[in-house]
Fold these 3 entries.
Entry 1:
Amino acid sequence: METALDARQKTVMPRTPSTQKALHAAYYALLIVYALFCLLPLWGTLTTSLKTSQAVETTSPLAMPGSPVFVGYRGALEELKTPLLNSLIITAGGALGSVFLGSVCAYALTKFQFRFRGLFYLLLTVAIYLPYQAILIPLFRTINALNLYDTKAGLILLHTVFGMPMCAVMFAGFYAEVPDCVVKQAMIDGSGPWRIYRKVVVPSTKIATMTVLVFQCTSIWNEMLFALIFGAADAMPATIALNNMAGTLAAERNVQMAGSIWLAMPVLALYIILGKYLIRGYMAGSVTAS
Amino acid sequence: MASITIRDVRVSYNKRGSYALKGLDLDIKDGEFCVFLGPSGCGKSTAMHCIAGLIHPDTGEIRIGGSVTTSVERREFVPPQERNIAMVFQEYALYPNMTARGNMSFALETKKTPRDEVARQVDKTARMLGIESLLDRKPAELSGGQRQRVALGRALVRNPSVFLLDEPLGNLDAKLREQVRYELKKIQTQMGVTTVYVTHDQTEAMTMADHIVLMKDGEIVQQGAPTELYDRPSHLFVAGFLGTPRINMFDCVIQARDGSLRFNAGDFSIPAPENMEDALRPLLGREVILGARPSDLSIVENGEGDIRGVVDGVEPLGDAYLVYINIGSRVIIVKSAGGSGALSGSLALKASPDRLHVFDKDTEKRIGA
């Protein structure tokens, strides 16, 4: 009589080496096709950006440029110089502001007992999911009243305020891993909350700070809604300027593509330089806060 | 140096639903090594955290060196950083981002001590603890024992008025624990700093303490010198908690025979000590609990003993043997010094009358002096 175990052994037959190889080949083929599909637009952008206007019209977008030229890059930089600088300032200000406030907020929420602590945490979480469209009009009036419309300071303020909840929740995960007894020990050693934050909590969670900082920089750099509404001309960030270029006939496609590369470069550089911290940071969040 | 006074301190972790400390009253003398001893959840760490200022009690007052540090009624509270206390946590709580030197100098730097003085103090303490070569290492590069020494050094370097040690030896292996225990007591005696030490290990308490505070369910069951608690436990819980191996306990009825009193445990009957007769006579015919420590029972010739049994097993300890003896309804333990390795078969036991402990069955309190 066939037992349940026999039946299971029949269904989970050990694979032969040839079946295994075929399966591996299929997996790899699938992954290569997927990777090509993802990289194709980037390839098209890169090749087009290195062509002359004439070559763009006469060759396939995916074809290699005969002899690469940087005329597109020069043109794009001319157009995007000021918006890129704006983006840089807004990103630096907004990211540092939100990371600092989020970090302090998470420190208080995770390491100190106070009334309505749970409510504060809940409100922060709610703020993350708040659709910005729903508050655009009151926000617009507020920024106007503060005389910050179309200023870099206005955009920095917005990104600081609206980036803070996400930063706080991310930091809270890391800070929860810092043992409470370390904070208590620092108190016993004569330090007040601020000194403990500066001397113990932040230095022992450098990877956390790096992770949240990169995340926030990327978000602000790529952001378009606030940029479009509150950065109309003088404070216009590069995302909007690039979009404007793509929407006009004045800019050639090679210039538009070069502009895209210019825009992507700082974020790419950030990932290349800080990528190792990011991976450690994502792992650290789940295991330890070191 | 400072004495510590605790008056009616209550702490609740669930909005006064139940209390982790139920009106603690305690006086710790200046320079004393006081051990809070008890099982997990008895409130010993809570009491220490109240002294440190890490917990705000619901009621009561705490004074360190005569000055009020916590007073619920007077709404006074000195934050931990202003109490001039040093604490060692069980987890050591070393700052992971700092070297051993950084950890040890942190508190002095906070107090804005001149840099040369900080270095001098740290070097001196490191020499005392034998950790000079470890000063440039970070906690992750240190072993458990080394971390423990750095944590201890961090406390010692500050010259505080009170040391609070929360199970500091809990993470060490048995051999190292023994060594550090001895060194710690020696250092404390040299420095003469009032020390509060929390542990659930009765051996640590017995060997180190000048004053043991044995706690259970948020209350002090008995306090006093280690020998006082061991020799004259005021409560059944104290008798059971102190002593390895555990004290033998028997449910007995007090009976009178030929004008003298006897404890009848069913399996055996032994005479009550003469000096306890006055205290026991009113309890004639009632059940009490009789306690006899394994070292207070001796194996004797078969005709001489009051308790008869059969050897159930023998555990050699090196210098002595633990003999498990089946006396009928239960097995009792006898600690016998030497020569008992070959014991087997039936034998007789004799209890030292002046070393017997008698407890009321209902209140579990000690009967007699």
Entry 2:
Amino acid sequence: MKNLFDWLDHRSGYRKITHEALFENIPGGSRWRYVWGSTLTFTLVVQIITGLALWAAYSPSSQTAWESIFYIQNNMWCGWLLRGIHHYTAQAMNILLVLHLMQVLIDGAYKAPREINFWFGLVLLLLVLGLSLTGYLLPWDQKGFWATKVATNIAAITPFIGPQVQRIIVGGSDYGHHTLTRFFALHAGVLPGAIVALVVGHIYLFRRHGITAKQPLRQPDAAFWPDQVLKDAVACLAVLAAVLFLVLKNHGAELGPPADPSDSFSAARPEWYFLFLFQFLKYFPGGTEAIGAIYIPGLILGVIFLMPYFGKWKLGHRFNLGFIYCLLAGASLLTWLAIAEDRGKPDIIAAVKETERSAERVKELAESPTGIPATGAVTLLRNDPYTQGPKLFAKNCASCHRFDGHDGTGRPVSDPETASDLKGFASRQWLTGLLTPEKIISVHYFGGTKFKDGRMAKFVGKKLTAPSADLEKVIAAISAEAGLKTQPASDPDMIKVGTTAFKDTFNCAECHQFHSKDEDATAPDLTGYGSREWLISMISNPKHDRFYGEKNDRMPAFGEEKILDPASLGLLADWLRGEWYEATKN
Amino acid sequence: MSENQNKTGRRGFFKEALALAIGAIAGVVPAIVALATFLDPLRRQSASNNGGSFVRISSLNAVPNDALPHKFPVVADRTDAWNKFPNVPIGGVYLRRTAEKTVEAFNAVCPHAGGFIDYVPSKKCFSCPLHNSQFALDGTISDPKSPSPRGMDSLPVEIRGDEIWVKFQNFRAGIREKIAA
């Protein structure tokens, strides 16, 4: 064995290198304050290892990026753990960078002859921030997509070269396949390559000038190995433990709903470590963004780069420390302001809730027997009544109608309720309300419409004052037309009796048609009432003779007037009817 | 050696061991997780490995009763990681109608190295364009110089009414035995 090592040493000289690496002298002995550089090297190695494994399963294109990460997260061995470690180690790296920078500044390790190494460190800091920025887009979820859109638009306001820089980064004028391939090349190739090269230089320069020991020295000098290595190893383990704690607590990294450029996303916020910049930009009115996004950050970086020169004077060193403390305090304040500002906003809260709902929903759809189509998971949400129904309702119906008192998405509506509340439309419960004297004239039914004083309301007010078993059967018969999934099927005898009572007992057929032709009918045809076809036709054109005809009260003909396309009409009808894919619960 | 030195030596060794152990734990945990995800394909079973399933290939009328091979695509549902593709080509078979209601089926993949075998009408034989393996019409090796370790992989056929159904499976290449891939 010894011979083999001798042979190897003769060829490589590894003993000398190892000796130099391990037995570096540390004046004053090992200390906990020196661990930050090692923890950063450790996190870099963790990111490279986990990043390579993620790379082996990731597919950068706008139809496969989210999908491949979904697969890593939910289908691959330890995939959620792998992605979680990568995600939270990236966050830990940003904190460790600040700690390392602070230690270097406080201990005066940036002063001559260590200027170049300080600059290496600053460039490394910027490159790691670049990794965070590029990595955030790669899952191609709503959050990453919109946050990156903002970031690249900020790049575009750089004087002179901005638009060109943006085009090069984005890979064209629009966000798509090439945005992902480029961000991925930066994230997994260019930036890590540059970082590894600079880290080698950083460590070489650090060794060349030796450690800047904190004065006064508390103990006799010692070698790097084993005392400092032990402290470094404990610190690295602590970082890993913190990362694993966060991964387990949050069940891995979050994966939002897939990016959809056509869907608004008011909860778009950068990751927490960029929130201060996000908040800072709010204070620069239109046309002056470049000052907040480029000039001031550039100036601050310029000052930090020049710190080794200021540090030559005692006062300069104090200025440097004061500057960095102010900077940290300012960034913390801005971060806090950004969080506090969002905390109370109902719109943000609703948008965050909606995003969480979509994220859960797309998971359910992706795991359905039909799986993810080649067009990508975003199609699953676009064709899903459960997702689109509330949005379509909020946009097109909620200015008059309500859904359980809100606009369909859970947001309150400020306009008065001037048409019926459609939650449970055509169900027995809904119809029972309609056929109750005090309810039909309430705003939940006809109260806000001109039908409040119409024949139907008068009929209900006069004739349906007492509870009646026959009325229940009529309701069951009409409701059965809808064939709602949420309603248990009523028995055929009951429906038969109800249909007869419709005509004979209550004389409904005087105005309504119900499985019989009547040219003189003046009220909506109840044949197929609440069925998909009935609803689509009704929303398409309520002025049609089959529905309200000339009596129609303000409701637009959404189909006839081409306000909604056939697909949207179908989604809206399905959602109102409660028809959407539901995973069978085991 | 004085007692003091001995103590320092022992403490030094303890520190060294501890530094190594803690460093190793910190390094190994992420590496194991990365390796686990990387090795995920090992636990996935292929459709062939599950015994394959009968797939409708064509109608009986589409295969002339001439005892010659005719190439057909195998169209079935395919799962490719996260995507599910309904009705896409997943392979090819040669069908050979040897009697009115009798059909033979061969997987078109060469058992040598997985090339797609051609049928050469002028020589009335199968030939792999990659390493020149030659097979007779019944799928057996016809040229002893062929590098293929076994004849073409035959597949079970069922005639259902006037439709030809084949139990489609792929087999491991490069070995003598016919083992599902």
Entry 3:
Amino acid sequence: MTARIGVITFPGTLDDVDAARAVRYSGAEAVSLWHADADLHGVDAVVVPGGFSYGDYLRCGAIARFAPVMTSVIDAAAKGMPVLGICNGFQILCEAGLLPGALVRNDKLHFVCRDQWLRVENNTTAWSTRYDSGAEVLIPLKSGEGSYMADKPTLERLEGDGRVVFRYVGENPNGSRSDIAGVADERGRVVGLMPHPEHAIDALTGPSDDGLGMFYSALDALGVAA
Amino acid sequence: MARVVVDVMPKPEILDPQGQAVAGALPRLGFDGVTEVRQGKHFELEVDDSVDDDTLAKIAEGFLANPVIEDWTIRRVEQ
């Protein structure tokens, strides 16, 4: 059986094509999902890709979270479907309440665009089992509002429960609390991160192929051989 | 019809780099004595009389503001 992984396109999404390419590289079938269509077309997992959905109007992800497709994603996530939010997708999942916290403007106001080392802090989520715990991976980061914020009790709970999935290595690029680059929900099925694993799947187009592990991990979680 | 104003501000503990940038620019423009600037959003809503305060609170808390990072206030203004 070939896993079917949906990739959502909102108005203003940019990285749906690369996300679909990464899904295909991993051996799964990429299924295009449209923001206005609540039907998930029977997919086994969903990627919410990066970009500037609805022009980032109001707040990043604030309008996208109310799109018909997101209602279905929220329902599916409650039933355990693996969901990955990348960059703007991470912002959307936070706005939707699938992940805790929020992403705010980078400190010093700089848009950061660079290849960024991350440390894998939790290799038990649906999107990170292919990594060794503590492994360092090189993944492009490109965002202006990537500073992860949550109140102190939430941060303590995330740390205590091991729900920080990726952490920035070296200088903090955007002011994120506790150098957090990505977090998971309580069950480890929903993961969001600011860096772009879909841009790091081969040496031709990215700085590494370190990002591919996230997509392989999802196939493992779905019980599909990759 | 009534005019309703919703003001949304970053919570005090949330870093406000935009406000800091504005504050940093003022001395360069020759304006001294402004010690802090916080930048938020101001919404003006024209609403039917049938829209009650509870509904307005839901609009502010559930959409116009993100309570994780922002505080909000609502007031009805005379026109």
